[in-house]
Specification:
Layout (H helix, E strand, L loop, with lengths): L8 E4 L8 E5 L10 H7 L4 E5 L3 E3 L2 E3 L3 E3 L2 E2 L1 H22 L6 E6 L1 H12 L6 E5 L19 E7 L7 H13 L3 E7 L7 H14 L16 H4 L3
Parallel strand pairs: 2-3, 2-8, 8-9, 9-10, 10-11
Antiparallel strand pairs: 1-3, 4-5, 6-7
């Protein structure tokens, strides 16, 4: 049984009742502190739950193993998504936030485990904003789960050499086929989170859940894309 002690993590409670809690999922080589500024920029006043991936790839933190560059260990994806869902359940019990307002925010490898959690454990997340995400099960067709009405924002670079736009479009199709209210926001860049995409995600989040308008004074540093280098 997964507990909150099984993941190094940071938890910051929401400033007021009614604010969402963001599950922050870092990219490869980063840690539980990497996306805190992004979370604050996306939803000022939101609760922040930011765990660290438990897979060590030559000193780099990851959420699941891969067989080689661009090829996921899909069995490990399935197992690790189950661990993350268990962590979320334990965190709800420990910290007392409303799971109906839990929105995953992930970049690259973190976005992939967020997508896997949506597809494999429906009901764990109320929604997700995923940047540079691929279809996490790759050539396996996900089960026909019910994601009816689940809001998902996908930010994808048309020139991304790591998570190709075709990978992002496949994930978009898989989510839509299962009823998710998916928004695919394509940009001309690569493996990154450009300011225009961040602004689009802020607007999406305001319209998709119990949050407040973003403060224009809040500016987030981009996720550690240089350290990431892979999905």
């Amino acid at each position: 049984m997964t507990t909150t002690e099984d993941f190094h993590h940071v938890y910051v409670p929401a400033e007021e009742p009614g604010h969402p809690t963001l599950l922050l999922l870092h990219g490869t080589g980063a840690d539980e502190h990497d996306l805190l500024a992004l979370g604050r920029a996306l939803a000022p006043g939101a609760g922040l739950l930011s765990p660290r991936g438990n897979v060590d790839e030559q000193g780099a933190n990851r959420w699941f193993r891969r067989l080689r560059e661009g090829v996921f260990d899909v069995d490990d994806v399935v197992a690790r998504a189950g661990e993350l869902a268990g962590f979320v359940s334990a965190a709800v019990d420990r910290y007392g936030f409303d799971p109906r307002s839990l929105i995953a925010v992930g970049f690259s490898n973190g976005a992939n485990i967020g997508a896997a959690t949506l597809l494999l454990h429906p009901g764990t997340l109320a929604g997700a904003a995923l940047f540079a995400a691929a279809a996490p099960l790759q050539d396996r067709e996900p089960a026909d789960v019910d994601l009816s009405g689940t809001p998902v924002f996908l930010g994808a670079g048309q020139a991304d050499p790591i998570t190709t736009i075709d990978d992002a479009r496949l994930l978009d199709r898989q989510l839509r086929a299962r009823g998710a209210d998916a928004t695919l926001h394509e940009h001309r860049g690569g493996h990154e989170l450009p300011p225009a995409v961040l602004a689009a995600a802020q607007s999406w989040l305001v319209g998709s859940g119990p949050t407040v308008s973003p403060d224009p004074r809040n500016r987030a540093e981009p996720p550690s894309a240089a350290a990431d280098g892979t999905g």
